[in-house]
Amino acid sequence: NQALPIYYRIHDLIGIGNCNRGLGDVALRRADKSTARERYIESSLIYRNSHSPISMGIIYHRLAYVVETEDEKQQYLQQVRELYLSIGSEDLIATVDELFSKEKPTQ
């Protein structure tokens, strides 16, 4: 929480996104899906502006764990696949599918 204002001050988009993602991870570990979802969505908006497909894939993967419906989950997973395909990372798609099947987000 303390680092977030610093990243905003220096306009470090990836740092802001990473901080929000980390805060979302903490909330998820505390079983606070609502706060996790808010932080992940904030992170996704930041990552989208930074044009980082890897970061977007990671955050969409996390969002798939905190959505309310199976349809939303599948939409996020499809976005992960499309992002990773756009950068030629079929291996990342396989990894995400394997990790997601275990029903726990990873760091």
Q: Could you give the count of β-strands?
A: 0
Order of helices and strands: HHHHHH
Number of helices: 6
Alpha-carbon distance between the two ends = 18 Å
- Calculate Rg over CA atoms: 13 Å
Helical content class: over 70%
Query: What gross morphology would you assign?
Result: globular
Beta content comes to under 5%
What does this structure look like?
By secondary structure, the chain is mainly α. It is built from 6 helices and no strands. The chain has helices at residues 3-9, 13-29, 33-50, 53-66, 70-86, 90-101. The longest helix has 18 residues, at 33-50. It starts with a helix and ends in a 6-residue tail after the last helix. The model has no long low-confidence stretch (mean pLDDT 88).
Task: Describe the secondary-structure layout.
Blueprint: H1 3-9, H2 13-29, H3 33-50, H4 53-66, H5 70-86, H6 90-101
Helix pairs in contact: 1-2, 2-3, 2-4, 3-4, 4-5, 5-6
Give a nutshell description of this structure.
With 107 residues, the chain is mostly helical.
Which short descriptors sum up this protein?
107 residues, mainly alpha, 79% helix, globular
